[in-house]
Write a structure and sequence with these properties.
Chains A, B, C, D, E, F: Homohexameric ring arranged as a trimer of dimers. Chains A, B, C, D, E, F: GO terms for molecular function: 3'-5'-RNA exonuclease activity; tRNA binding; tRNA nucleotidyltransferase activity. 6 copies of one chain form a homohexamer. The first copy, chain A, has 7 helices and 9 strands. Chain A is α+β, with helices and mostly antiparallel strands. Chain A has a single domain, classed as 2-Layer Sandwich (Ribosomal Protein S5, domain 2). β9 of chain E pairs antiparallel with β9 of chain F, so a sheet runs across the interface.
Chain lengths: ~250, ~250, ~250, ~250, ~250, ~250
């Protein structure tokens, strides 16, 4: 039994507050247990100069943690004057994950910036960020359609995407690691999966102990099952009526 | 009548969610209408090296806005690699305001860092930050007392503190300006007031039109009346039972 | 009696060396006692791209202290690679103060940059900077008029502006604090006043002890009387023949 | 047939010039075809202050590309004043990969810094860097043993480690992608494997097209076969007599 | 005849206002014609940690230009967030030049920082800075002796040092170039010479046209003659009674 | 006799591997004994915006040291976030030296960037860099001619250029100092000379002991003789058939 009473293949309680922000074209406050990430999607008509004239859009992401999202306070990267390696790495991962489900031609010359700010951290912040950012993205695309920046027939979303962590702790594969589990894991893997069950990213790391093919396979099985559940949560959230900020403004 | 139906001397709806963060020693999610600021207080036993051995504590603050807290997305200061003048100025203001109500000798060699992160901005973010940070600070001091870092008899809090904006719009003094009011104001003033009604900061600025003594006085009257209400909201929030994270952890 | 023999409502000796710089379109080396600030005004025909086409001008300011302007040497901000909060705050204050007396339409699409470099510091550097910058600004506007960048009929200067510090020391309100007074003050206020006696900025701060309405009023009285004298010094300086660098070049 | 005549499961020509640097405790100039990376290992007795007293060592890595290692010149990160996300990500990957085969207790309180500087880039720079860094690391450990910083009995190296890229191009899995192949790949995966055939890192990315379990498996098969060959090249290089700089100095 | 009526071997008018700063242990406002540089010397008892315990002192320098010291305004290096190559180069030159005439053993564990801030620039700012910094240095050493940080018998100054620019313009060697001459020079040389006539630095640069041995010799002749005059100005300045700030404070 | 058996007027073994890089338009890996510098020349058709329309080209250079090119590892400037004074100074020196032998009109609106990266350092890195960069530059100009960016008749190279260090050690002038000699030198001089024997730069520095005219002359004699040999090595290298990357690509 795990520290919070879950079974090894069980996600933490997942909640998605869609449209949390009144300012953004799309937004979601997502929780994976005590991990809480505010995801906003900013829609801009037009693309950066180096991309213009190609009839294609652009999707990018930035990840950050509030200084006291963690158990002991971290210095702000803005105060330090530079962004750390981990922040860079996760921002890039989120961006790639979302681009994998967007048809840039169908998006047209529009730009989407996903901001994922961790308000409270308890493990799995990058996977919660990807899962929540998808919901924000879907709403911002609807906003763009309502505003006629995306044509009526275009289908820029070609699939949904979610992410989950898996790891081996004391020899046992487990799904959706909380922070105290994460630090004890021999192997830690983040898996990004589309709604159709295809892999977008597989990032397995063995700082404590290298892993074999069998362990890899059991982790992938767990991750795919978790992704099915997360896809369900995303669908439920998006099935409700769109927040006012998404419809019109 | 104002855009949101308020009278000129009326605050926006104020809410304070005390103990919003499970990680911080004290915290409050405060709303002044659509302005929402997450304030956390981080308590550390000990002081920076340059202060140690004097038997006195230290209180400091950092303010920041999420990139999409505003109507159009701002670049992150961490990405730009430097903190802007406005951020610096408000961080310093919050720090001074809170230090004005803390007895550093009674605090002892302990450090408090107040982080005020604007999740959604609609005018008055610095005044909401000060008002919410006081609640987070009060809880973090209780945590320090529970942990015996502050002696039982010490009274580090010598008063409460809150802040409110006032301004003259079309010749009429108004309390607690929303963003659309703020941009139209001839004169804008931020006033920081203690629970006993004394001034901590008076910052009046006239970019559009210089103001005379009579106008200054009417603005100060409004601010003092607003501060009385804000003090009431703070008292109500702190009258409830302390969140679990404050009591023990 | 004060440390330098002044009465409580007396300014330090004020001198203004107009046209100190041969390079700048306007300049003044101003002294408030031992505080010496070199103020230069740089006039450029045209405005930053984001402002062009609106028929309006722009005025901005930068403040800095030489590393050994103070009693013990400070590190250079250029060497540290970032500008501190205090520098930012004062630069912004100077800019706002001067913009308050300039009619941007009458200025036309021209830019003025005021540089205020503290050569020697003994309290009141920001108030000396504002008072001196006004003289430099007035001369640079005349230069712009001589060069036909400003039309003959335009009156970009709508008032003069000066600034002075006031504070309460040992319960007594005092005018124009020297450094040793400043560090002992319970309350410190910087007041920016136009030649007509209207307020542009009122910035009162109580780090040591909050202040009441009566104290605030006595400080404002002192500041207004000081501003009358400073306006006189500015007028005298500008009444002399313009320096060669301002007339033609 | 591939552009350079290789079969799909064939590595490019691999060369390892061990001891290329006269200054470093261990070094290797490694080539994967036209990709050339200079790897140096710097051995320091002692660890960073935050680690000292724990009887454990530390291994870290930094990756960088010379500005003209690529087809068109890139700006230097030192000139830009900040390190990009990709550089951070790869530096961290190299560090983790090498730490996976080092027993930090056996290393004792010693620090190893691996510098991997890409002199010429043609795809697979990070995998060449890991493979070459292992050789430099092995030599630096021997140097540390010769100098008695590592005890005679200690076995800090618990396995060897190498890395290779694999990808799916036009539906076909291929080993060790050159640059022109890399940009055409639908899926790109970097796999870090120990000499015993265990995984240290599996990083699969699908920016162009998500991949399924079957594709993932075929890529892992290819990677494992490539790793066997790379391990052989490492063994051959290390089987020769140690360079003078490693033996004594 | 030169633009300002000088002969080819004539310096511009040189003035040295010793003790210009009331704050610094030594200071000089030096003019080479319209070039005006404020030089301050900051004396600190003790040396940086990496030098302590060796019984030797340290002398370093920083050079900077005010943004409007030049004909058109330059951006501040503090605002740009980095120091340019030219600033670095000149700061290092000044430091080396002064260290050449200081006996670090006789100085003892004391640190001198020379700040040379160009208030007005018209060519030769680095040579004026070195010449003025020597005067500030000499006074700061006297201050250190008066304060007993330097022992009574110690002779830390082993020589004096000054600097002057020379150049070839239209085939003619000239002494102490003003800005308009400097930009027209084929060859430009800065020469740092001790009071005894020995070279400390010879920096000749030929961006427009390489020079031969004969030209080099004629430039060195001119520079040596100029240095004799500058040494005289330094002696005269130092022959007067020391300013109050140097004697006691 | 010198430490490596050379006579005082003897260069270390010089090797030039022309066309070392397959990516750059021109390149050379140059060795002065154990000092090894990789010099690449990047040719771009066009000039920076501020230069365009003048019919002239631009040549610039950047110098850097790999972190473990030296005996003990240095921190990377990219990681520190700023470039040090020494790096700036040498980059500027290399750029000026090469510009002295290029006719910018004949070059036309083309840009050449010389990157000099020190792979192994043993004294004289800047002189090796200049000497090698000339070879890379010459090849890149040929590439530009082959590509018709430079007209057939144009002669952008007006001379060759090389550089060598000289110094006085224990009273004896010596040529081409190795690192252990450099640190013992009383006077150190870097001399940049054209193929015709004219001076481009003369940079003599006396941190340990000022030098007189006789010593200066003997150093210049040594440098000129060394330059003759270096010019010979450059000619030999360029006399061979051009590498494939230079001819066509």
């Amino acid at each position: 039994m795990r520290v919070d009473g879950r079974t090894n293949d069980q996600l933490r309680p997942i909640t998605i507050e869609r449209g949390w922000s009144k300012q953004a074209e799309g937004s979601a406050l997502i929780s994976f247990g005590n991990t809480r990430v505010l995801c906003t999607a900013s829609f801009t008509n037009g693309v950066p100069r180096w991309m213009s004239g190609k009839g294609k859009g652009w999707v990018t992401a930035e990840y950050s943690m509030l200084p006291r999202s963690t158990n002991s306070r971290m210095d702000r990267e803005s105060v330090k004057g530079k962004i750390g390696g981990r922040t860079h790495e996760i921002s890039r991962l989120i961006g790639r994950s979302l681009r994998a489900v967007v048809d840039m031609k169908a998006l047209g010359e529009n730009t989407l910036v996903l901001d994922c700010d961790v308000l409270q951290a308890d493990g799995g912040t990058r996977t919660a960020a990807i899962t929540g950012a998808y919901v924000a993205l879907a709403d911002a695309l609807e906003w763009g359609r309502a505003k006629k920046f995306i044509s009526a027939k275009a289908q820029p979303l070609i699939d949904s995407v979610s992410a989950v962590s898996v790891g081996i702790i004391g020899g046992v594969p487990m799904l959706d690691l909380a922070y105290t589990e994460d630090v004890r894991a021999d192997t830690d893997m983040n898996v990004v999966v589309t709604g159709r069950g295809l892999f977008v990213e597989v990032q397995g790391t063995a700082e404590a102990a290298p892993f074999d093919r069998t362990e890899l396979n059991s982790l992938l099985d767990l991750a795919l099952s978790g992704a099915v559940s997360l896809t369900g949560f995303q669908k439920s959230a998006l099935a409700e009526a769109a927040p006012a900020s998404v419809q019109g403004r």
